[in-house]
Design goal:
Two copies of one chain form a homodimer. The first copy, chain A, is of the alpha+beta class. Chain A folds into two domains: 128 residues, Arc Repressor Mutant, subunit A (Orthogonal Bundle), CATH 1.10.10; 217 residues, Dna Topoisomerase Vi A Subunit, Chain: A, domain 2, CATH 3.40.1360.10. Helix content of chain A is 41%, strand content 16%. Chain A is built from 13 helices and 15 strands. A six-stranded mixed sheet of chain A has the order 8-5-11-10-12-13, sandwiched between helices. In chain A, helix 3 crosses helix 4. The model of chain A has no long low-confidence stretch (mean pLDDT 95). At the A-B interface, helix 3, strand 8 and helix 5 of A face helix 3, strand 7, strand 8 and helix 5 of B.
């Protein structure tokens, strides 16, 4: 399957060097050096209908050295780019953005200023600037976030950093942890015989299905991001989508949070539009829990939870999102509002402990009862 | 090493049956049936100085059937105990307490009442009552919470539910996920050659050490609960403490949250006193980051973070806890207050990326520079 590569590393170093050299040339010529950075504001985020992904537009901003309002940020950008390049050249381990902040935070000799004083308002935005500027994800720059998910099923991966080969049919009741980076220089998909990927919103549901060996009986990959997924699970699902070419189904709560989590896996999110382009999985389908399932499977009334004011407000908001504009979703959202209740995916045990694994999921998948 | 056993299951079923039969006898005799439940209120929680653990005292409350104020809760307790017993007898998979709530929540024929209407105020407290009543943890009753942690190092476990043998030296950059239950009927320690266990508060620090193969070079188990640990990591560390008989060191931030997380691993927590007795690790030592390390290792000023009002208030609170009453801790807390800054464990990369793995940890461990 996919072959691993360190090409990214070389390309990134080359790209960062290129940026640096251009700046140097401009300085030598007596010009005002600057970099051009794609805007990450809401006005430059759009939903690409044909790709079904949230994307970043073409608007850019200039950041110049000889500009009182931009000078500090310009220098921070240069410091950050130089540090990322150095860490890559030295083949250092992946770090968190906080660790990188600490590496770069220091006083400037002769000045009262620090290079950086705050992570969330200073160093993190500059990292994001560099990501979009050179068109690589932070994980490819060797910067990682905390992963959350676990998975099981007939897939074998090779960890290129440690040479370990991990067989996700042998990971016990724990399942195999999703690593902080799932990029190709770390994670190589060696082998996969799964017929589909089932992404489960909640750990409790994943845990029940995993114990029931659902993945074995149904020959699938069973993945959970434990609620709202971290970057690693989103990117992993995107790789599954692109490389395995098998169907991907999401199983979430029938409530606004469930819908939203599905849409984050599928289309991405507005506040991480750049990441979303590379970590969305447009072919993912919403398996459930869906409004028609309530009657179809005769879900007991004791499992229904009344919608509160906040739910109803969020339902209206979600129904205005471009990616929920399809008729099937508009119908679904309208029906939920009329129904007046939400239903959690964990509630299906009230039918029977084996109901989800033996009746619900097989019926939905066999009859292709999905929302897209 | 430890041999696995289903004895617990049999004992629990027996104990629950015993409770039920006693109630039946009382009913047949025309008595007012009742159960006696150890109190879980603050007034019945104490710090056991000799065991160095937070424990539940001996105070009990009676819950009777023929008592207007207790009747509903009595019946809920009986329903819950019967359901737990049935699930154990049927050898069902482990469930979350929310799933169990959904199984039990239903209308009562002929009445307008439901068995349970809320999880956090009704069914969860009753589960806790049953835990303390029969002196078994909910994990032993087959009820599990969401685990968070990962680990690596020279330890091999056998998952008794799946028969998988998991070697934590071969888990790649992900590390091996901690399963939701680490009880003996699930997790058997097959083999461990580690010299000590290093528990790391933060995932970013764990991730750096794991990539640097710290566990291999120093022959240890490297575990993180990703901040405040879940039940599974606390219980796993307790098992390591009891069964492996090797030193256990905690590496946290030098701030009140870091101290608190250390104390949760070591002594437990007040709000889960019953769990703490069984999931505390009294022999755990605080390796750092400690106030004397600032000078000892010449930590750059740019890594210091000024204590805010909230930090100072929490420092005073923590210094009054029984388990921080030892002179060494009182001195430490006093010195931090005087110093006026906190230092995060991830900040040590500012010294050098390999500083933590190659200098800090080996020096601290070799010279036994711990707080107890």
């Amino acid at each position: 399957m996919a072959t691993t590569t360190n090409e990214n590393r070389e390309s990134i170093i080359k790209s960062l060097k290129g940026t640096g050299n251009t700046i140097l040339d401009e300085l030598n010529k007596g010009d005002n050096p600057s970099v051009s950075i794609p805007l990450r504001t809401l006005s430059n985020v759009y939903f690409d209908d044909s790709d079904q992904l949230i994307k970043l537009g073409n608007k850019k901003q200039k950041r110049a050295f000889f500009n009182a309002g931009q000078s500090k940020k310009f220098m921070q950008t240069m410091l950050m780019a130089a540090q990322i390049k150095e860490l890559l050249e030295q083949n250092q381990p992946a770090l968190s953005t906080r660790q990188l902040y600490y590496i770069l935070k220091h006083s400037i000799p002769g000045l009262k200023e620090n290079t950086f004083d705050d992570q969330s308002t200073e160093s993190d935005p500059v990292i994001e600037d560099i990501e979009v500027m050179i068109d690589y994800l932070r994980e490819q720059l060797n910067l990682v976030a905390v992963p959350k998910g676990v998975m099981s099923g007939p897939i074998t991966i090779k960890d290129m950093k440690t040479d370990d080969v991990i067989d996700y049919t042998k990971m016990g009741t724990a399942g195999g942890a999703v690593p902080p980076s799932v990029e190709k220089d770390v994670l190589q998909i060696k082998d996969c015989s799964a017929d589909y990927v089932l992404v489960v919103e909640k750990f409790a549901v994943w845990n029940l299905l995993n114990q029931q060996k659902y993945w074995k009986k149904n020959n699938c990959i069973l993945l959970t991001g434990k609620g709202q997924p971290a970057r690693a699970e989103r990117r992993l699902l995107a790789r599954f989508g692109k490389e395995l070419k098998i169907p991907i189904y999401c199983f979430c709560d029938m409530d606004v949070y469930g819908y939203y989590i599905y849409s984050v896996y599928k289309q991405g999110s507005i506040n991480l539009a750049f990441f979303s382009e590379k970590a969305g999985t447009p072919q993912a389908k919403y398996l459930g829990f869906a409004i028609d399932d309530v009657k179809r499977f005769d879900i007991p009334r004791s499992s229904w939870i009344k919608l509160d004011k906040h739910d109803i407000k969020r339902l209206s908001e979600v129904s205005k999102y471009d990616w929920f504009k399809k008729k099937e979703w508009q119908d679904e959202l309208k029906k939920i509002k009329e129904f007046g209740y939400k239903i959690e995916s964990d509630a299906l045990v009230a039918k029977k402990i084996e109901f989800t694994a033996k009746e619900y999921l097989p019926h939905k998948i066999e009859n292709k009862l999905f929302l897209d």
